[in-house]
Amino acid sequence: MDLTELRALLARHARPDMRTSIDGVLISKVERRTPPTTSMSGTVLAFIAQGAKQIALGDRVYEYRAGQYLVASVDLPVTGRFTRASAHAPALGFGLVLRPALIAELLSQAAPGDLPPLAGGAPSGMVVSDAPDELGDAVVRLLRLLDRPRDATVLAPLIEREILWRVLTGEQGAAVRQLGLADSSLSHVARAVTWIRDHYAQSFRVEDLARRSGMSASAFYRNFQAVTSMSPIQFQKQIRLQEARLLLATHPNDVTGVGVRVGYESPSQFSREYRRQFGAPPSQDAARLRGVTRAPAPAVV
């Protein structure tokens, strides 16, 4: 695949906030290798045109480089870093926010046999593949519309559908396909993920969360682990620690209060788990965090 035009378009239209004039389209440009940072992945298709990035999710590590794409079908707590980027050859990436309603619409329009049958169980919430030429071509045509705003209103939604169709019919289509199915295992897990994110400071029983998600406890635990590479309790801890770090950016002198606010009853446990996650105790890390805010765009782009 020739990535020359794609790189030129990404470099020309990149902005610090990653946003573009086309809704749901993101562009990243990074000019140096970065230390590991934690954030939420977003539900997104990320296509790397230059450079390389590494994403850690639980005990899994994903690496993707120029000519490859990553699909995050659930909003997951990840640790990411650019492993290949410089001022001379910046890492350049394209992102497309995945919309379950649009995916569901495409699935309803597919003829019988257009899509392979789904395997049993939930797919991983994050997958990486080599991008076929057809997908790269559609991404280029979508980005060209940034220079043609008059055409973008009508044509951008059509090309977005084409991009999704290329992914749905590709080797990682199951992850995106289940995102558009309201009763899929992945959708059940995604509902549980949303609940944990919204109530991360609260204790819960896995059995109750499984019931809320419409699954048996054993099926829920198995599918949650398959999608997120974590148990529900481990997932909650990741969310708590990420939220704690954001709070410490604005409340650096209230370590104990921040720990309580995110759900920790024991200050020593909070400090121990925080240090294990971020490499420094909360009080020391807080001194480096002034001005840090929530990531404005998905972390995997």
UniProtKB/TrEMBL annotation:
Residues 190-288 form the HTH araC/xylS-type domain. The keyword Lyase does not apply. Signal peptide: none annotated. Pfam families: AraC_N (PF06719), HTH_18 (PF12833). The keyword Transcription applies. InterPro entries: Homeodomain-like_sf (IPR009057), HTH_AraC (IPR018060), HTH_AraC-typ_CS (IPR018062), Tscrpt_reg_HTH_AraC_N (IPR009594). Keywords: DNA-binding, Transcription, Transcription regulation. GO terms for molecular function: DNA-binding transcription factor activity; sequence-specific DNA binding. PANTHER family: ARAC-FAMILY TRANSCRIPTIONAL REGULATOR, TRANSCRIPTIONAL REGULATORY PROTEIN. This is AraC-type DNA-binding protein.
